[in-house]
Amino acid sequence: MFGTIIMDAYTIDEAKDIANFIEENCSPLDNWGWASAGIYSFWDYHTKEVLYIGLASDLTVRFKQHNGLLPIDDGACKYQQIQQYFADHKRLGYSVLVQSSLSQPIVHRNENLYRKFLDAPKGMPIPDYAGREGIENIKLAEGQLIESYRQVVGDIPPWNKIGGNIDSRTFASFNNYQLVVEAFSKGTHENFLMSRSTLRELAKNAKYSWFEIQLHGLRMMMLSRRMTFEEAISMQKQLNPSFEKQWSSIVDSKYLDKKIII
């Protein structure tokens, strides 16, 4: 399930580094961090305009395709738009809305792991019960977020060609825009869905990453049950006795006071 928005920005020479940071946080090859299936956004670092909202079953692979690090037809990615952007700008914003690792779907890179676990020979279909929720979530979320952008701004983001899943558009709201879409590029300290660390910080700092994984559970409750951050903390303490100690570690470290610096 969704809950955490993680921001970052990069120069054209840092694309490989960002791909590695995404992999460190959202790899389909382990159960640490978050699932590889999520929503992502490119945004103008200088004007904070959201340029594109997309979905990916494997965020690392999709980022590489967009940035020319993996081969794919230009019409199936935003490579040309990104190159044009970098011709006039030094840094490009990139943010992800991530899901729990429990929502990890079967993708090309982890297929062999599932085959081995399920003892399914190559060529035999793999029962795709694993992570089905994660795949459905990104389809629904993309449609809602693009539609919420259209409702507020008047059109879909400039790099998007279509509006996403049609059925999910009816659930779009101003809250979608304010809490998520606008936060992709203008994340504020007051928005508790925002990670207090960037992709690169989480990839390099295990303590920060651990904190954010604990906070992700609260954010899932906020979105799924429409709770405030404080209500989610109270509920989590009731449901999970060990969370009291985890929460004390976060509070004592003053991690929530950490500013997001992009």
UniProtKB/TrEMBL annotation:
Protein name as annotated: GIY-YIG domain-containing protein
Protein's organism: Clostridium collagenovorans DSM 3089
